[in-house]
Amino acid sequence: MRVMAQMSMVMNLDKCIGCHTCSVTCKQAWTNRTGTEYVWFNNVETRPGQGYPRTYEDQEKWEGGWTLTKNGRLRLKAGGRLKNLMTIFASPKQPSIDEYYEPWTYDYENLTNAPLQEHTPVARPKSLLSGQDMNVTWSANWDDDLGGSPALAAADPVLAKISDKVKLEFEQTFMFYLPRICEHCLNPSCAASCPSGAIYKRSEDGIVLVDQDACRGWRKCVTGCPYKKVYFNHRTGKAEKCTFCFPRIEVGLPTVCSETCVGRLRYIGLVLYDADRVLEAASVTDERELLASQRSVFLDPNDPAVVREAEAAGIPRDWVEAAQRSPIWALINKYEVALPLHPEYRTMPMVWYIPPLSPVVDVVAETGEDAEDPGNLFAAIDTLRIPVEYLAELFTAGDTVPVTAVLKRLAAMRSYMRDLNMGRDADASIPASVGMDEASMYEMYRLLALAKYDERYVIPSAHAEQAHGLEELATECSLDYDGGPGMGGSGPFGEGSGVNDPIAVENFHMLRQRQTTDTVADPSTRKARVNLLSWDGKGAPAGLFPPRSGTDGPHLRDPEGPSGETQPLPAGGSVPGPAGTGTEPTGTPPTGTPPTGPARDDDAGAGR
Amino acid sequence: MNTTETLLWVVIPYVCLAVFVLGHVWRYRYDKFGWTTRSSQLYESRLLRWASPLFHFGILAVFLGHVMGLGVPKSWTEAVGISAEAYHVMAVGIGAIAGLCTLVGMVLLIYRRRTVGPVFRATTRMDKLMYLVLAVVIFLGLWNTVAGSVLNLGGYYDYRDGVSVWFRSIFLFQPHPELMAAAPLGFQLHGMAAMLLFALWPFTRLVHVFSAPVFYLWRPYVVYRSRSDRYGARAARPGWERVDRPQKVR
Ligand code: HEM
Ligand code: SF4
Ligand code: SF4
């Protein structure tokens, strides 16, 4: 047994209202840069729908993930190592920008600058890739809320696996949202596809990261990941992916998407697993066994033998305790209501989902029957083949038995709790009918329905003695890195060349000179951004609003605002340093370049 | 050995090679982040699918050809029983095919760079300069092969007795510039352009060649990085030195 800890997430799909807050805040924190316009570390797809990028689930087409060879060994679906290298010069299975969408902005300037004319001037869409006018024909959520169905939803690869007859009834019956982030897989095929070995799994918490200094832009990981959660930054030529907000996790904060989730449906916690058994579990012959085999890899954190082994493996005591309180462990192995997304890709994904009962409830309610009556619900789960089959294609490689079991548990909880809430006597037969006792059903209800903050997120902070092993902890002097202050910016070899800034510098200190722009298209201001990664909800993060001209003279720009929370901005955008416009020593008050009006972005660019 | 000869075939080569070596060291230290292929496949892949493999397989064959032709003395190949004629036929044959693939691939790549909007917009000034010099080198090299060895324009010249010896002499630190001075103009220009390319190399996207990921064939599929990898990355703060305790090796 080789115990390892994995930071993982469970999402309760019943609660997702499809508001996309998670996507937007994630983007604001991580990918609001040129080159990552189309990059959504977190995206929310309407199901049925094509997903993002389009039809990514069709692995016959995209060849992501793993497959079993005839002799029962795992092999990358896109081909073995040699084939991977031989196709390096032009990757045969990489989605093009059309499968995502061509990012664009609008020519807003035209609204104010257009000469007097008969027709109202318009802000034309301009491609952020070519700079030319473009027609907007697709984007990240073009088929949101079944928009464009049935034409668009019919291309859903998951739907295609269910028989044709089903499709038609189906659009009338249900729809739900599927928020997705990187799965931080136990057996990540992205890492396995990376020729440089730049993608690694952190042995402390299992977060899968791309080493930006080691990535050489071979872009093979994009093909490798079946969930298409590695994106290619087309400006820097490097792969980027969801980081599980590791700078937040390390200090005990949940990810940005979880923190801001309106439905409060995300759970974060540790899972202990046996690293020696991962490969074996991922190689079971029958796809439908994968759910069970993955569950069996997880170790019971309350088992003294496991605790002993965990300690021997160097997992700190408080991490083991956190694993014992982990909502993830409870939802996956104790209540058995969480299921993995597409286990058939054999990457052992670690973001699991509680399938939505709402489609079933809706149907029962529509018929005028009591949608909280266990009998009605159970009968509906059994007869509503379509949603159940669809969910099974998503979560259990097509096996409806586990999905039905989960839905029945959720239905039972609903009915059981109704009695309690109505002040009636609890009916112990309801939990019993789904193999639970009353106490655990109530606990499950607490976890699912009340979901207090500290129950949803059980995140032990990283250890000081591990600080150097974890990427770039904020406790280190932010200027203490190769090249030091004044470097950064864009070097002479194109976008992003030169020494890059450690994330700790970039995010925690919210470099002032990056936060003052209102153009997204101009590459010279590419580093300008508002960063929400370390925003605690108080005050306004620097750069959120453009400086007010006139009133906002240098005299008002002392480094600490009245509340000490807002960071005032130098209006010059970035202060050109000796080596381009780089990292300004944090902590030094801004030099207070006076506002120069709309031209300010240009002088920022001049140094580059 | 006159001054011009020395300047052209001793000083300039050494300067260029020094820039090549030191440039790479510097670039790697200063700019690990910029060390990438800058793949443009996201923008366009229909042309790239043909152009890039054609170019790359071609240029890799050409590279191997140069290793053979420049690196291996004629006496060695003859010692293993390859006659000069057989070698010549083989080299010119393979060289011409590989060169042609490279050329076609490169023309397609350049065409794509220029005509596909997003690709052109992502093209840096360095890219343009690099392509210019690369194209000159490749064109002259192919010209030498075809015009010199196939069509026999300007008489027969065995570069293995001239250019190759000069090339090796550079690395043996006993340069023979007179050999280059005696070579046909085509070879001189090709050599000079190549030197220029070497000097440019570390400052272009061509650095990606040096990270050709051959180790991928042997390394374990999934890379783990553990904290112990980073011990000693910097001195511990006073009072925070690590206490060594037996740790299970992962
Ligand atoms: C040795 C192994 C090599 C590997 C693995 C390799 C790999 C690559 C890759 C993956 C790309 C990006 C293609 C794309 O997606 O846009 C690329 C581009 C390029 N490579 Fe290489 N390369 C190698 C050697 C070379 C050599 C020897 C040269 C020339 C001397 C070269 C010149 C180029 C050029 C000019 C481009 C840019 C193509 C464009 O216009 O987009 N490569 N290479
Ligand atoms: S989901 Fe994440 S960890 Fe898994 S293969 Fe894709 S990028 Fe890698
Ligand atoms: S923020 Fe929460 S509720 Fe809103 S779309 Fe994201 S996951 Fe769903």
From TrEMBL, chain A:
Enzyme Commission no: 1.7.99.4
UniProt region (Disordered), positions on chain: 481-501, 533-608
Keyword Nucleotide-binding: no
InterPro entries linked to this entry: 4Fe4S_Fe-S-bd, Nitr_red_bet_C, Nitr_red_bet_C_sf, NO3_Rdtase_bsu
Alphabetical list of CDD domains matching this protein: NarH_beta-like
A biological process from GO: anaerobic respiration
Biased composition (Basic and acidic residues): 599-608
Gene3D superfamilies listed in its UniProt record: 3.30.70.20, nitrate reductase domain like
Sequence ranges of Pro residues compositional bias: 587-597
Name of the top EC class for this enzyme: oxidoreductase
Composition bias type Low complexity, residue spans: 576-586
Record's subcellular location: Cell envelope
Top-level lineage group: Bacteria
The protein's name: Nitrate reductase subunit beta
Lineage: Bacteria, Bacillati, Actinomycetota, Actinomycetes, Micrococcales
Automatic annotation (TrEMBL), chain B:
Entry binding sites for heme b 2: H66
Residue ranges of every copy of the NarG-like domain listed in the record: 6-227
Key word Glycosyltransferase present: no
Predominant location category: membrane
Requisite cofactors: Mo-bis(molybdopterin guanine dinucleotide); heme b
Entry superkingdom: Bacteria
Keyword Transcription among UniProt keywords: no
A Gene Ontology cellular-component term: plasma membrane
Residues annotated as transmembrane: 6-26, 47-67, 87-111, 131-151, 193-218
Record's subcellular location: Cell membrane
Keywords: Cell membrane, Electron transport, Heme, Iron, Membrane, Metal-binding, Nitrate assimilation, Oxidoreductase, Transmembrane, Transmembrane helix, Transport
Gene3D superfamilies: Transmembrane di-heme cytochromes, Chain C
Binding-site residues, heme b 1: H56, H190, H208
GO annotation, biological process: anaerobic electron transport chain; nitrate assimilation
Annotated GO MF terms: electron transfer activity; heme binding; metal ion binding; nitrate reductase activity
Membrane topology: Multi-pass membrane protein
Recorded family membership: In the central section; belongs to the NarJ/NarW family. In the N-terminal section; belongs to the nitrate reductase alpha subunit family.
Function: Does not seem to have nitrate reductase activity.
Name of the protein in question: Nitrate reductase-like protein NarX
Organism from which the protein derives: Cellulomonas fimi
Gene: narI
